[in-house]
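fold-stage: in
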Amino acid sequence: MDLEDNKKPISDREKWDLLTRQERLGEILLKRNKITLQQLEELMNEQNKTKKPLGELILEKRWMSQGEILEALDWQHQTDQVIIESLKELKFKPEDPC
């Protein structure tokens, strides 16, 4: 039996949440090959203990410069804006869950 057979269809609300979910800094850095998966896991474990922002932890470890972190944060913001503007143009809104 294929794993796909067990998946239930995604609701419109779940689709909306996936489309509009903000990409996290760690995901961006991983996709852009700025950190490894092992480094991201280490950062996340440390973040759970210290509650410090991911960028701050990266700077403390000297894995990246402040400029590189700011570039990734700018990328994150730009990506969010593109999604928001695209959805506005489509006038797409999720169905009211109530």
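fold-stage: in (second)
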Amino acid sequence: MANVTIPFDGCPVTFGVPDRNLAEILSPRPSMPLSDLDLAINAAFDVPIGQEPLGKWVKPGDRVIIVSDDNTRLTPADRIIPPLLDRLNAAGVPDDRINCIMALGTHRYMTEAEMEAKVGKRVYRRIRVFNHAWRDPDALVDLGTSSRGTPLLVNRSVAEADVVIGIGAIVPHHIPGFSGSSKIIQPGVCGAQTTAQTHLLSCSNGGDSFLGIADNPVRRDMDDMADRVGMHTIFNVVMDSQGCVVGIFFGDMRAAFKAGVEMAKDIYGVFYHETPDIVLANSYPCDLDFWQSHKSQYPAQRMVRAGGTIIVCTPAPEGVSPVHTDLLEFTAWSSKEIKAAYREGRIKNGVAAALATAWAMVREKASVIMVSPGIPAADKARLGHTHADSIDAAVAEALRRQGPDARLSVLTHAPDMLPIPAFEPLGQS
């Protein structure tokens, strides 16, 4: 019996897999964190990628808004924003003309304490920091449509700013290929109608996601939206599996992102050597709720044999979603049924419909067993998943379904991982 250890709910958890069944244990590649993060941040501001330094083009009268990712991400905004403010001040922009918005997308609003922790106490007292009020129509402005015809409703404060700077992290992501860059605008500070259309577009890749595909229809649409909003500058980081910064990419939205994607591929792109019957996908670091930990499914979906089984392990202390509470009414439906119900107006929540469609596409390739102390067994059933009390129980059930000789692979940090076949996939020449 092989003992396998994964990070679960902040602690290492060990479970057993029979030796004959264990195929591979896959994790992000080890990488060297920056030895002096503050020094590296300032060096990045000195030499932007594809762009002049801030002092060359930011004007004293500009209204500046910093768009930061929220508390579902590990990006160290509290280390990035203070030197950014100093650079803006040196360019003649006073603190009272600088705001920072939390790019929630359609996540729950952050508390005051959470926002203070995200940006740091000094920043929180120095400039205005506030949530993207995506539920408030008055907080949004209609900018028409994107080049693909997606309705563009964006936060008014962002649309009216003269300078927009996005802060985030780059990892593989199932919707736009990789997170980071223009994703901080859409879905970060857009309305739910905009986000629904983008998420539905991500379900158009023939039953698979756009995970790890840097150039795809969703990314192009998001870039166009960011252009229309006026975000030309990003400060993105690539982190290792422990949340330590490995690389910094500041400058032009497209050029800096392109450089960051290459590093993210090197760390999170992992080669697998056989198509497993079972994939155990651990949700770390996206553990807060299933709205975050669902990302663990897509690398597993990419790897697993059709008709196989995926085991999702997630703490999910906030359940399936504290915001999109209606989605359990339809999450067990087929992807075709969900899409039809949304088109016909029977499902009103387009964002939830889009993610439920993606979840259904996973189940249509492989059955899903879930280990989660935060999600009741009844809610797992409404997701179309099978409840398991423990990881060991889930492994036993998966082997019962797939047979005594089934092969099982483990993704220790599944949401951020990009599985790459080290062999010729079936059906290709």
